[in-house]
Amino acid sequence: MDRRKRTELLKAWAVEAGFDRVGVARLAAAAHGESFVAWLGRGDQAAMAYMADRVEVRLDPRTIFAGATSALCVALQYHAPDALAVDGDLWPRVARYARGRDYHNVMTKRLRRLARRIEGAFPGSRTKPSVDTGPVLERDLAAAAGLGVAGKNTMLLHPHAGSYFFLGELFTSLDLEPELQLSDLCGSCSLCLEACPTGALPQPFRLDARRCISYWTIEHRGPIPEEMRPQLSDWVFGCDLCQEACPHNDRPRASTEPAFAPSPPRLDLDLEGLLDLSEADYREVFKGSPMKRSRYQGLRRNACVAMGNRGEARHVPALGRALSDADPLVRAHAAWALGRLGGAEATTKLGEAYATEVDEGVRRELESAIASSA
Question: What's the pLDDT score for residue 85?
Fold first, then answer.
């Protein structure tokens, strides 16, 4: 079988495996390797130290395994029409990609099935699947495979599919026909840069995670710096603002994958329900959800910040209950939120908590909150 026929066969199998689009990239040194190294050098990765792991593989995917020559790059839409219909005070501020099941599990299973089919049909060939957890600059590979082009918000854009899609790769030792690449889709548009409320997109094609809402609500562990908390608004997990501003997402291709649609019991939660959730219930409710990336304490920390920024007095009782939570991280952020809300009830609850609090860090938060609420 010649290279072109083999390539078309494997692409057809990828579609049969359940992916929306597929392209082929010939493995070579990363096109934007220098930009990635500069990104690390500036510290734009914030505390995500893992981004500097195995840099040599990121810069040259041919080293992913001996004999790797090509990558089948796949895309799977996650923008479910129902995702826009969510209401309440929680789910509209959860990034669209995280409202359903974890895409890592969905895509990895399909890539593994595809890998077995290819290795069975081409004895002696090797494959290796990847879904953004490996040392791969997958946006570069996907662009080389014709699946899109980098936008100024650093997301991969497609002229018809927008940017609401997941990427995955199946590296192979088979020699495959590479795709034609797309050209720039942004032009003079800068709407995504202007939409970012924290300045995390200081210039086109650069993301500074130290200013990014998604970083602080998903990747960051521990207390959120006080100066950042008001800037997070009421986002609880991730942020879609730069994608929502992109004209290519005005009418994005809808997902047909039911796994990515929001569903009970998670969909029944609101901010107070999330804050009140026991750890046992959290494990059950968020089983198979990408929101587990923030962990139990991180999600409840984020809920406190969101309530404080929403400025609604109805949240005072729930935040008051959280002042006696077992986790000092939750207590500290609940105190900050109550100070932000202010009023007699909030001030009383803060004073009562201060009288019994033994953690010095939480006591400082309570002191500051009491001063703010008075």
Answer: 62
